[in-house]
Design goal:
Blueprint (H helix, E strand, L loop, with lengths): L1 H26 L7 H20 L3 E2 L2 E2 L2 H21 L4 H35 L7 H22 L6 H31 L4
Antiparallel strand pairs: 1-2
Length: 195
Protein backbone atom coordinates (compact mmCIF):
# COMPACT_ATOMS: atom_id res chain seq x y z
CA UNK A 1 0.00 0.00 0.00
CA UNK A 2 2.90 2.36 0.75
CA UNK A 3 4.13 1.90 -2.81
CA UNK A 4 0.75 2.95 -4.26
CA UNK A 5 0.64 6.08 -2.10
CA UNK A 6 4.20 6.88 -3.20
CA UNK A 7 3.13 6.62 -6.85
CA UNK A 8 0.07 8.80 -6.19
CA UNK A 9 2.29 11.41 -4.49
CA UNK A 10 4.60 11.42 -7.52
CA UNK A 11 1.71 11.73 -9.99
CA UNK A 12 0.24 14.60 -7.98
CA UNK A 13 3.62 16.34 -7.96
CA UNK A 14 3.99 15.95 -11.72
CA UNK A 15 0.46 17.28 -12.28
CA UNK A 16 1.29 20.30 -10.09
CA UNK A 17 4.36 20.94 -12.22
CA UNK A 18 2.27 20.74 -15.41
CA UNK A 19 -0.16 23.28 -13.92
CA UNK A 20 2.72 25.63 -13.11
CA UNK A 21 3.91 25.33 -16.71
CA UNK A 22 0.35 26.10 -17.87
CA UNK A 23 0.24 29.20 -15.67
CA UNK A 24 3.55 30.43 -17.05
CA UNK A 25 2.27 29.87 -20.61
CA UNK A 26 -0.83 31.95 -19.81
CA UNK A 27 1.39 34.96 -19.04
CA UNK A 28 2.47 35.05 -22.68
CA UNK A 29 -1.04 34.85 -24.17
CA UNK A 30 -1.13 33.58 -27.73
CA UNK A 31 2.63 33.94 -28.21
CA UNK A 32 3.07 30.38 -26.93
CA UNK A 33 1.25 27.80 -28.99
CA UNK A 34 1.64 24.39 -30.55
CA UNK A 35 0.70 20.78 -29.91
CA UNK A 36 2.48 20.49 -26.51
CA UNK A 37 0.72 23.62 -25.26
CA UNK A 38 -2.65 22.28 -26.41
CA UNK A 39 -2.03 18.99 -24.59
CA UNK A 40 -1.11 20.85 -21.41
CA UNK A 41 -4.27 22.98 -21.69
CA UNK A 42 -6.46 19.90 -22.15
CA UNK A 43 -4.88 18.26 -19.12
CA UNK A 44 -4.99 21.26 -16.77
CA UNK A 45 -7.86 23.52 -17.81
CA UNK A 46 -10.71 21.32 -16.46
CA UNK A 47 -9.12 21.33 -13.00
CA UNK A 48 -8.30 25.05 -13.08
CA UNK A 49 -11.74 25.94 -14.48
CA UNK A 50 -13.40 24.07 -11.61
CA UNK A 51 -11.49 26.24 -9.12
CA UNK A 52 -12.31 29.41 -11.09
CA UNK A 53 -16.02 28.56 -10.92
CA UNK A 54 -16.10 27.48 -7.28
CA UNK A 55 -13.73 30.09 -5.86
CA UNK A 56 -13.54 33.16 -8.10
CA UNK A 57 -10.60 35.15 -6.77
CA UNK A 58 -10.23 37.87 -9.36
CA UNK A 59 -8.50 40.98 -8.08
CA UNK A 60 -8.07 43.60 -10.75
CA UNK A 61 -6.81 41.82 -13.85
CA UNK A 62 -5.35 38.93 -11.87
CA UNK A 63 -6.92 35.51 -11.32
CA UNK A 64 -5.81 34.11 -7.97
CA UNK A 65 -8.02 31.03 -8.11
CA UNK A 66 -4.97 29.07 -9.28
CA UNK A 67 -3.34 29.62 -5.88
CA UNK A 68 -5.78 27.47 -3.89
CA UNK A 69 -5.82 24.99 -6.80
CA UNK A 70 -2.06 24.49 -6.55
CA UNK A 71 -2.05 24.52 -2.75
CA UNK A 72 -4.79 21.89 -2.69
CA UNK A 73 -2.67 19.66 -4.92
CA UNK A 74 0.26 20.25 -2.59
CA UNK A 75 -1.97 19.26 0.34
CA UNK A 76 -3.05 16.04 -1.40
CA UNK A 77 0.54 15.26 -2.39
CA UNK A 78 1.62 15.75 1.22
CA UNK A 79 -1.11 13.37 2.43
CA UNK A 80 -0.11 10.72 -0.13
CA UNK A 81 3.55 11.15 0.76
CA UNK A 82 2.81 10.80 4.48
CA UNK A 83 0.71 7.69 3.84
CA UNK A 84 3.56 6.22 1.81
CA UNK A 85 5.79 6.53 4.88
CA UNK A 86 3.57 5.80 7.91
CA UNK A 87 0.33 4.28 6.53
CA UNK A 88 -1.66 6.06 9.25
CA UNK A 89 -2.74 9.66 9.60
CA UNK A 90 -4.37 11.17 12.68
CA UNK A 91 -7.23 13.63 12.69
CA UNK A 92 -4.89 16.19 14.25
CA UNK A 93 -2.48 15.77 11.34
CA UNK A 94 -5.28 16.37 8.81
CA UNK A 95 -6.60 19.40 10.70
CA UNK A 96 -3.09 20.86 10.94
CA UNK A 97 -2.55 20.37 7.21
CA UNK A 98 -5.91 22.00 6.42
CA UNK A 99 -5.04 24.94 8.68
CA UNK A 100 -1.66 25.30 6.96
CA UNK A 101 -3.30 25.09 3.54
CA UNK A 102 -5.72 27.89 4.39
CA UNK A 103 -2.93 29.98 5.88
CA UNK A 104 -0.77 29.46 2.78
CA UNK A 105 -3.55 30.86 0.60
CA UNK A 106 -4.10 33.83 2.90
CA UNK A 107 -0.39 34.57 3.34
CA UNK A 108 0.21 34.41 -0.41
CA UNK A 109 -2.51 36.98 -1.04
CA UNK A 110 -1.27 39.22 1.80
CA UNK A 111 2.29 38.95 0.47
CA UNK A 112 1.08 39.84 -3.01
CA UNK A 113 -0.67 42.93 -1.68
CA UNK A 114 2.44 43.97 0.26
CA UNK A 115 4.48 43.78 -2.95
CA UNK A 116 1.89 45.70 -4.99
CA UNK A 117 1.54 48.43 -2.37
CA UNK A 118 5.33 48.64 -2.03
CA UNK A 119 5.55 49.11 -5.81
CA UNK A 120 2.91 51.83 -5.49
CA UNK A 121 4.97 53.47 -2.73
CA UNK A 122 8.07 53.47 -4.93
CA UNK A 123 6.08 54.93 -7.80
CA UNK A 124 4.70 57.63 -5.53
CA UNK A 125 8.13 58.51 -4.13
CA UNK A 126 9.80 58.80 -7.54
CA UNK A 127 6.78 60.65 -8.93
CA UNK A 128 6.01 58.31 -11.84
CA UNK A 129 3.47 58.96 -14.55
CA UNK A 130 0.32 57.71 -12.83
CA UNK A 131 -1.63 57.62 -16.09
CA UNK A 132 0.35 54.78 -17.67
CA UNK A 133 -1.38 51.38 -18.03
CA UNK A 134 1.03 49.80 -15.55
CA UNK A 135 0.08 52.22 -12.77
CA UNK A 136 -3.60 51.79 -13.61
CA UNK A 137 -3.24 48.06 -12.94
CA UNK A 138 -1.24 48.68 -9.75
CA UNK A 139 -3.85 51.17 -8.54
CA UNK A 140 -6.78 48.88 -9.38
CA UNK A 141 -5.19 46.22 -7.15
CA UNK A 142 -3.88 48.43 -4.35
CA UNK A 143 -6.71 50.93 -3.91
CA UNK A 144 -9.27 48.59 -2.28
CA UNK A 145 -6.72 47.49 0.34
CA UNK A 146 -5.46 51.02 0.89
CA UNK A 147 -9.01 52.24 1.38
CA UNK A 148 -9.89 49.50 3.89
CA UNK A 149 -6.72 49.84 5.96
CA UNK A 150 -7.00 53.62 5.98
CA UNK A 151 -10.56 53.30 7.29
CA UNK A 152 -9.24 51.08 10.10
CA UNK A 153 -6.52 53.53 11.14
CA UNK A 154 -8.01 56.90 10.33
CA UNK A 155 -11.77 56.27 10.45
CA UNK A 156 -13.60 59.08 8.69
CA UNK A 157 -10.60 61.40 8.78
CA UNK A 158 -8.59 61.78 5.64
CA UNK A 159 -4.93 60.84 6.09
CA UNK A 160 -2.20 61.66 3.62
CA UNK A 161 -1.64 59.26 0.72
CA UNK A 162 1.94 58.47 1.75
CA UNK A 163 0.88 57.89 5.34
CA UNK A 164 -1.90 55.59 4.16
CA UNK A 165 0.48 53.55 2.02
CA UNK A 166 2.98 53.19 4.87
CA UNK A 167 0.32 52.23 7.41
CA UNK A 168 -1.12 49.68 4.96
CA UNK A 169 2.25 48.03 4.37
CA UNK A 170 3.02 47.92 8.10
CA UNK A 171 -0.46 46.61 8.92
CA UNK A 172 -0.21 43.82 6.33
CA UNK A 173 3.30 42.86 7.51
CA UNK A 174 2.07 42.67 11.12
CA UNK A 175 -0.85 40.47 10.03
CA UNK A 176 1.52 38.25 8.05
CA UNK A 177 4.00 37.82 10.91
CA UNK A 178 1.34 37.51 13.63
CA UNK A 179 -0.67 35.06 11.56
CA UNK A 180 2.41 32.96 10.93
CA UNK A 181 3.09 32.61 14.67
CA UNK A 182 -0.55 31.87 15.51
CA UNK A 183 -0.83 29.24 12.78
CA UNK A 184 2.50 27.72 13.83
CA UNK A 185 1.35 27.28 17.43
CA UNK A 186 -2.11 26.04 16.46
CA UNK A 187 -0.64 23.52 14.05
CA UNK A 188 1.75 22.25 16.75
CA UNK A 189 -1.25 21.69 19.03
CA UNK A 190 -3.17 19.93 16.27
CA UNK A 191 -0.22 17.69 15.33
CA UNK A 192 0.01 16.53 18.93
CA UNK A 193 -3.61 15.35 19.07
CA UNK A 194 -3.61 11.58 19.61
CA UNK A 195 -6.61 10.88 17.40
Amino acid sequence: MRFIFGILATITGIYSLIILIRIIFSWFGNMVSGKPVEIIRKITDPYLDWWRQKLPLNIGNFDFSVVPAILFLSFIQNIFHTLSIVEKITLGFLLAKILLLIWNIISFIIGFFIIVIAIRLIGFLINCNIYSPFWSIVDSISQPILYKTNRIFFGNKIGGYLKGILFSIIFLIVILIGGKFIVYFLSKILYSLPI
